[in-house]
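Running this now, will post back.
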Amino acid sequence: MDGDGVRELYIGALAQVGTDIFPGNIDYLALGHLHMPQAVGGSEFIRYSGSPLPIGFGEGNQEKTVIMIEFAGPKPRITNIPTPRFQELLTLRGDWPAVSGKIEELKSRRSRAWLEIVYEGDEVAGSLRGRLDEAVAGTDMEVLRVGNNRILERALRGTDGGETLDDLDATEVFRRCLAAHEVPEDQHSALLEAYGEVIVSLEETDPRAE
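Update: finished.
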C-alpha cells in the first residue's frame, strides 16, 4: 500500500469468497489483515476490525477505530470507538518551493509530524535529502521517507520508450541512480557490492522471502 510494506495478499480465490461460506450460527466473526475497518457483504456481524493505528503514510488520513462487542442480548451490540491519533503522518508533494513552504507552515504550528516527501519538481534535486534535513532542523518533525520522482525519471531517460520501473531489477535501478546522481564511476563497483550485501541481508531476514 503506497510502498509502506503492506501487500495485497490473496491465496487462491480468497478475494472472491462470499459471506455464505460461514456458518449461520456464528454470532460475530472477526477477520484480519486488512487495515481499514469494514463490514463484509453488508453484514454488521462479519467484519474486519482494521488496524487501531495508521500502519503507513497511505493511512495517515484514515479514521482508526477499535470495536467493542457486547453479547448481552440475542444479537451482539457493536460499537466503533475512534482511537486517538498519537502521531501525525503527513505526505508533502510538489516542487521545492511547495514542499519547503508546507514545512514552514508546519513549523509555525509546532508540528511533531512524521513526514513523507514526494518531490515532483522539474529541477533534479540531487541534494534533496540534505535540504530537507536542514529545513526541519531544530523542530520535532522527522522526515522518514523521501521519494524523488525526477531522479527515477532521469534514471530511465534514454531507454526504450516502453520501459518502466517495473521492468528493471533493484540492482539496475541502483546502478542508474548512481549515474543520475553523477557519482564518479570509480566508486560504482564498491557501492554496488555494498548495495548487493544489503539486499541479500534483507532477503535473509524477511520472512516473506521464504
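The beta strands are 29-31, 38-40, 43-48, 65-70, 77-82, 89-94, 114-119, 142-148. More later if anyone needs it.
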